[in-house]
Design a protein that fits this description.
117 residues; 5 helices; 87% helix; 0% strand; extended
């Protein structure tokens, strides 16, 4: 179930609709523009565009073309490869961090509220 369905089951249909509409609005007004800006900024720096709007249009066009041509299978493979790279890079970074300072050195610097159980 979605969170809106849970709210509707727990409280009322009005609350369910409110949560669903607010979730859609937040996604449209915050998440999509933020991801477009970050991707366009990255694309502008890599490709060398000075215009972020042009980079945004290029990013949306490339994403749409990739989804249309490759389909869902291409998206799933891309997500799998990204997951592998994120996990490997996280493990490499963790190994580097622990090679610089041991776990016990890091633990001695933690604030008390993190150590309290």
């Amino acid at each position: 179930k979605t969170s809106a369905q849970y709210i509707g089951h727990r409280f009322s249909h009005f609350c369910q609709m409110y949560v669903a509409i607010m979730t859609i609005l937040v996604y449209i007004l915050q998440q999509i523009p933020l991801q477009l800006y970050a991707g366009a900024n990255f694309t502008a720096n890599i490709v060398g565009f000075a215009d972020l709007y042009g980079s945004s249009v290029l990013l949306v066009a490339m994403t749409g073309l990739y989804c249309i041509v490759g389909g869902l299978r291409a998206i799933i493979y891309t997500e799998f490869i990204q997951c592998f790279f994120i996990l490997v890079s996280g493990l490499v970074f963790m190994g580097y961090a622990f090679s610089e300072r041991s776990y016990f050195e890091l633990q001695s610097e933690w604030p008390e509220f993190l150590l309290a159980r």
